[in-house]
Design goal:
This protein is mostly helical and about 140 residues long. About 45% of the residues lie in helices and about 10% in strands. It has a single domain, classed as Luciferase-like domain (TIM Barrel), CATH 3.20.20. The chain has a three-stranded parallel beta sheet with strand order 1-2-3, with helices on one face. Strand 1, helix 1 and strand 2 form a beta-alpha-beta unit. Helix 1 packs across helix 2 and helix 3 packs parallel to helix 6. The termini are far apart.
Amino acid sequence: MKLGIFLLTENFGENAHDAILNDIELAIYAEKLRFNEVWFAEHHFNSFSVIPNPALMMATLAARTDKIRIGTAAFLAPFYNPIRLAKEIVLPATDPFVKSMRAVKAKGVQANFNEENYEELLAQRYAFFDAKTFMEALLSVA
């Protein structure tokens, strides 16, 4: 039987820094308990679930553990450059060197989003993309 843990990095104490460090420590402890995998989520626009970039959590954990496999449930595509995101998703699954490491292939890319919640971010960061153009660019690379 394989065991895994899914971490949302929930900010119960109103301190995002501590919440992130606590989940890294929890994942390290999961490896000591012989869990096989740890998964991170990505969330924005709230102060409770505080992982804006699961790839950073994965890299941090990879540097501090030896065996546990590390993955993300999904990347929220509208927050990324399509070329960079495609490389982050495709490289671990295809590159022989990276494949021998402990990365678990991402389970999904979430493309839909509520434009009301993301309006300010989209205006600032992706003013030159509409959602359809962004996803077409992302999918053409992957």
